[in-house]
């Protein structure tokens, strides 16, 4: 590849950048060498946060590459009307990993598509129409999934591009409670609110939640929350859909985050880490009760690339790599180290209002003032094209070789599960330096 070729300029001129104004966008040109991410051809990047929890195994995992190549040689594509070895193999591989009770799978090509399938299945199975989601959530960019999305990305699709039968309830956020309560005295009233909604709305098919809210702040619920939510849904004949697109595959120290609270959802959705993001695969898994319903009821869903062999083979290899490298345990151990170091930064930097997380999934929330919890920026600032404080911190981190996701007024820290002690130290040192930008803007 010629060094004179401006790949970033070509990309921005002829392809769309997602969730952004196009003017001024010039994405970093990235390549790989020996499995490590490079910024252009210049320097190696320390893995601070793989965008949206995708590359849990690190970039260019050889076992996954080999699986893709082997499958391409053997069977690159068949219609989803047919079967093949890899389709059956992955189903058998998933059964002992997913929460007990999830027993049948629909293979899509993204988390968005898997959520669309989940919502559609819930409505077909129950014969009801409404879906309840939460504010401060993200479930995808297509019609039903963006309707379920609670954050500002839904606004741009309204009204014509959003289905009308999705409602929103309060998120669980003990740092900044949406209903003005304090844990534990609140007795998780944010969960009880869903029983109120279900009883008064009627015709509710399902409640969809991220067990731990992802991009919108890594909001870890108190221990009572998910069991209570699951129970109140079951009592009312409403399905619980767990969107584990970001929290699956060892990210929180277990295969799936719901395991921390002993909850089995009626429908489980996952993607990203299942193939180490090296091939596009989303999975929608259901209970046997839901599966049995469609023995004699028409399953009205499908698409051309459903169960595509090239998406399934790398999932088999990735699962083997999670086991071989003991990455669930590594996520717990390294996550505790990461959490301790991030809390150490909080003691040093007045711009940090909160640090929260589980496993290797953390958020650092930046505020103007700890007492008032006033954030530096709001979604409207992003829409109005203002440079946010988080943008400035992330830009400085990038200059220091650390890739990190910044969102409105917090940082998402979600490195690959293979991160080493030395890399954690290097990333924390870079963040320590970059946070002086936010500290300078604190209002006493």
Overview of this protein structure:
With 444 residues, this protein is an alpha/beta fold. It has three domains: 1-44, no CATH class; 63-324, Aspartate Aminotransferase, domain 2, CATH 3.40.640.10; 326-439, Alpha-Beta Complex (Aspartate Aminotransferase, domain 1). The protein is built from 13 helices and 17 strands. The protein has helices at 7-14, 62-74, 85-94, 111-126, 143-148, 189-201, 225-235, 288-293, 309-324, 327-348, 379-383, 389-399, 421-439, and strands spanning 30-33, 36-39, 43-44, 46-47, 102-108, 130-134, 166-169, 204-209, 239-243, 267-270, 282-287, 352-358, 361-369, 374-375, 402-403, 405-407, 410-413. The protein has a seven-stranded mixed beta sheet, sandwiched between helices. Strands 12, 13, 14, 16 and 17 form a five-stranded antiparallel beta sheet that branches. Strands 1-2-3 form a three-stranded antiparallel beta sheet, with no helix packed on it. Helix 6 packs parallel to helix 7 (225-235) and helix 12 packs across helix 13. The longest helix has 22 residues, at 327-348. It starts with 6 loop residues before the first helix and ends in a 5-residue tail after the last helix.
Give short descriptive properties of this protein.
444 residues; alpha/beta; Aspartate Aminotransferase, domain 2; Aspartate Aminotransferase, domain 1; 3 domains; 7-stranded mixed beta sheet; 35% helix; 17% strand; globular
């Amino acid at each position: 590849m010629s060094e004179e070729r401006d790949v970033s300029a070509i990309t921005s001129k002829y392809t769309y950048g997602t969730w952004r104004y196009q003017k001024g966008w010039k994405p970093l040109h990235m390549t790989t060498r020996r499995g490590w991410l490079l910024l252009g051809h210049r320097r190696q990047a320390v893995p601070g946060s793989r965008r949206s929890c995708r590359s849990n195994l690190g970039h260019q995992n050889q076992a996954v590459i080999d699986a893709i190549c082997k499958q391409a040689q053997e069977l690159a594509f068949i219609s989803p009307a047919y079967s093949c070895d890899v389709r059956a193999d992955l189903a058998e591989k998933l059964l002992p990993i997913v929460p007990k009770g999830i027993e049948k799978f629909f293979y899509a090509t993204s988390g968005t598509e898997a959520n669309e399938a989940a919502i559609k299945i819930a409505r077909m199975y129950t014969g009801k129409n409404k879906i309840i989601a939460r504010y401060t959530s993200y479930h995808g960019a297509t019609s039903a999934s963006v309707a379920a999305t609670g954050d500002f990305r839904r606004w741009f699709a309204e009204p014509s591009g959003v289905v009308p039968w999705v409602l929103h309830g309060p998120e669980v956020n003990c740092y900044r409670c949406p209903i003005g309560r304090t844990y534990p005295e609140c007795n998780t009233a944010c969960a009880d609110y869903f029983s109120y909604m279900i009883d008064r709305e009627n015709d509710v098919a399902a409640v969809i939640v991220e067990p731990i809210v992802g991009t919108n702040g890594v909001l870890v619920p108190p221990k009572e929350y998910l069991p209570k939510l699951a129970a109140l849904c079951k009592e009312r004949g409403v399905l619980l859909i767990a969107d584990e697109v970001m929290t699956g595959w060892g990210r929180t120290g277990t295969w799936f985050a719901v395991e921390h609270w002993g909850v089995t959802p009626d429908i489980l959705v996952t993607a990203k880490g299942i193939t180490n993001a090296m091939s596009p695969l989303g999975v929608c898994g259901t209970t046997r009760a839901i599966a049995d319903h469609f023995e004699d009821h028409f399953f009205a869903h499908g698409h051309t690339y459903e169960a595509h062999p090239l998406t399934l083979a790398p999932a088999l290899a990735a699962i083997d790599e999670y086991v071989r490298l003991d990455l669930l345990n590594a996520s717990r151990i390294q996550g505790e180290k990461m959490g301790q170091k991030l809390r150490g930064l909080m003691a040093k930097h007045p711009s940090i209002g909160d640090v929260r997380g589980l496993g290797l999934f953390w958020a650092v929330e930046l505020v103007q003032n700890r007492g008032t919890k006033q954030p530096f920026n709001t979604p409207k600032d992003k829409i109005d094209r203002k440079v946010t404080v988080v943008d400035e911190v992330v830009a400085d981190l990038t200059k220091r070789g650390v890739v990190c996701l910044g969102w409105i007024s917090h940082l998402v820290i979600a490195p690959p599960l293979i991160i080493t002690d030395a890399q954690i130290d290097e990333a924390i040192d870079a963040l320590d330096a970059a946070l002086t930008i936010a500290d300078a803007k604190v209002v006493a």
